Amino acid sequence: MKESLGRYSRQMLFQPIGEEGQKKLLLSKVLIVGMGALGTVVANHLARAGVGNLVFCDRDYVEMSNLQRQTLFDEDDVEQFLPKAVAAEKKLRKLNSDIKIEGHVTDIASHNIEEFMEGVDVIVDGTDNFQTRYLINDVAYKYGVPFIYGGAVSSRGMGATFIPGKTSCLRCLFPTHDSSGQTCDTIGVLSPVVDIVASLEALTCLKLLTGNEEEVANELMTFDVWKNHHFSMKLGSANDQCPTCQLKEFPNLTQSDQDQVTTLCGRDTVQVVNASPFDLKEWEEKFDSLAKKTKRTPFLLRVHLYEGETFVLFPDGRTLIQGTEDVSRAKSLFSKYIGM
After folding, report:
1. What is the CATH number assigned to the segment(s) 2-254?
2. Is 184 a catalytic residue?
3. Active-site residue among 57, 172, 184, 242?
């Protein structure tokens, strides 16, 4: 044990962590939902810090525009059309071969999120939408696991930590959240903002895992690095009628995933979830005479249609239809080639 702890010697010199804290980290398990800009920075920090078991999920694959801020990826990942969860797992294993790392290529939803909760000590937000965050919030309060929230867009960042039984929850803070259309894909984002938010998420995670919960701020922090603004406010008391932390109804967790067609805001992409998994080799053969071009990897099948759009099929049954945000158009193409 002493020898394996040697790589963390500088971290253990920090008195609030020390050797005992480091041992706690090595026995801990963290679930990161989303392996994009925030998730890659968080995972990088936690892997280097020696968190013993890192589990993360992401539905997407690496594109060239990701490289500006998604720090675990490179141009080879883009060339190979690697799913983000696969590329991240490969990189993290090179950073720390002593810990357990599990990357899952999947779309987190109410029907599968609980599969990843066994033994989890902290859940970290690496997502880019509030529907998924409400789902994480529900599962965190159902299982009594701290949930670290973070967001970054343009030059702005924000974050908060929700601890079941001790703080109000995300739904108390934001009872509803209507999309403003302001996403990284519509108004951009500065990479340093992502680093700041995600680094604070990772830092909070280390506090929680090493038994330093009293050092976690009970507040929502917001800042704008371009305009030099910073503001924090206390989380406040829980809403007596909150369906998550008070009534224990967990609405996003208990509802069925009825909406199998989702527009990815600002991405010019619609996601359609098929009822059954895809055999990529089989579908490559089917599209061979129907499409302009196909490219299959072990993780996905990319199909360029004569109509102009592109299908990206994943083994778990998901299809990204790129080149349109028109749901009717996407469903029509999906029905034509795959069947609704």
Report:
1. 3.40.50.720
2. yes
3. 184
